[in-house]
Amino acid sequence: MNIIKKLQNTRLHFINGLLVLPVLFLAQTAHADGMDSVKAFYEKTQAVRANFHQVVTDKQGRKVQEVQGTMQLKRPNKFRWDYNKPYEQQIISDGKQVWLYDTELAQVTVRDIGKALGSSPAALLAGGKAIEETFTLANAGNRDNLNWVSAHPKDKESGFEKILLGFKDNQIQEMALLDSFGHYTKIVFNNVEVNPKLDEKSFLFKPPKGVDVVGE
Questions:
Q1: Among 18, 22, 79, 73, residue whose Cα is nearest residue 45
Q2: Left, alpha or beta for 205 (phi > 0: left; psi -120 to 50: alpha)?
């Protein structure tokens, strides 16, 4: 595989992974287990703001990606992820469309939110009380001082084998994803704010001049 092709595949994996991320911020029941935290999210959490650090490894445990940034989300279906290092990426949803912007490639991909979410892990954020229609949820025990819940997509074509969410002191602390290609993604959150007042303009996106816009 030549260098250009390898870079393109890496970018594609990165962009596809972006839609997964907003699901992570489920929370808020004191001293609750994982399942209680997931259920409480739909009742009590309307907005979240946080920083994150994400590492992706392949089947052999080799690190293929390490990024960090900030996120904001507001129900229903509005979210913004800004990847700041080592290169800039953005994923922004206004509740109707999802915009994926790669500043280095000068390319924007726009998707209808229904197609973008579907039965993917992002549906954990958007699914509301009907979430168990698309995911099989279960407590996954306590590990590293975190209460964990597992979510298995019922759609075998979702591209993900399993999602794990870790909670401590009523806040989401970590998330782990295992995709169909054997990539393992670990995300650690810090400075999590629950139900902050967010600017609606944060969820609007206008493609910069000179970038390619690709629709699906």
A1: 73
A2: beta
Give the phi and the psi of residue 114 in degrees, each rounded to 5.
-65, -40
Q: What is the pLDDT of residue 200?
A: 95
Could you tell me which residues come within 8 angstroms of residue 102 by beta carbon, excluding any fewer than 6 positions away?
11, 15, 88, 89, 108
| Contact assessment for residue 51 and residue 68, using Cβ atoms and an 8 Å cutoff | yes
Dist CA 138 CA 148 (whole Å): 9
Q: What is the pLDDT of residues 194-204, one digit of tens each?
A: 899 999 999 99
DSSP 107-145: EEEEEEHHHHHTTSTTHHHH-GGGGGGTEEEEEEEEETT
- Which amino acid makes up residue 176? A
Provide the pLDDT for residue 186: 92
Give the span between the Cα atoms of 134 and 121, in whole angstroms: 9
The torsion of the CA quartet 4, 7, 9, 12, rounded to 10 degrees, works out to -130
